[in-house]
Amino acid sequence: AILLTGVDMARERFQFAIEDRASSAIEAKLRDPEGTQGEIEGKTTSHLAILLTEASTLSATARKTFKKHVRKASGDSSGFSDALAFWLAAEDFRHMIKGDPGFAHAVKRIYKTYVRPPAKLPMLTMGVRNDIVDAMETTNKDNAADATLYVAAQALAIRTVFSGVYLDWLGTADGFRWHATRRVETIEPRHIAAIRRFQRGWRKKLRERKEAAEAAEAQRLQDEEDEKWRIIEEKRAASEAAWEAKRVQWA
Q1: CA angle 126-130-136, nearest 5°?
Q2: Which of 81-85, 133-137, 203-207 is most confident?
Q3: Which of these, 122, 128, 12, lies nearest to 78 by C-alpha position?
Q4: What are the two backbone dihedrals, phi and then psi, of residue 85, each rounded to the nearest 5 degrees?
Q5: In this structure, are residues 62 and 139 in contact, taking their beta carbons and an 8 Å threshold?
Q6: What is the pTM of this model?
Q7: Which of 42, 106, 122, 159: disulfide with 179, CB 3.0–4.6 Å?
């Protein structure tokens, strides 16, 4: 029989979780080939992860309003602010390479700041906490902590933020603007082309209307000028005729 260490068991559970998520995603696609309603509406943890990490100006601006929303919602014991801060720290750690300078320090810093205090991340199960400790304390180099150390804890943290804050924020004007704009700009680029064609056509129509209005105004002014000179000419001709009549009379 093969004796599995705590770290081995944790990694096995993590792999099972990945396979379960992949299987669920495939089943969802089979049920709805065009994409689930959550995908369309931005109501998935993947969308939240994009909001928290995407470097675009759109997401960076939305991220500021989302963090304000998190702070407003953190007046209870749910730990939304801590969960968000932990997820971001763990996400940065996930991209580190084992053995790099600062790796071991990052492991301990994240653990001491977020995982060890029980009140900081109440959504973490005892099993997840124990798995992290086992990976940190093992003497087996092959089973020692690596960049996936906090992935399971991250999943629990982001689900808490997702259900407790993100869905509510998504219903605000800022949330709707972020998702709708991002979907048009990145998910449905063909819509952007159509919008730009419409904008070009509308600008052309406005320009033509402006030119027509300017031409009509110029014609009106010209007509007024012509009418003014016609009246002057008529008055001059009448005056000359009067003087000519008087001259004949006086002669």
Answers
A1: 150
A2: 81-85
A3: 122
A4: -60, -40
A5: no
A6: 0.61
A7: 42
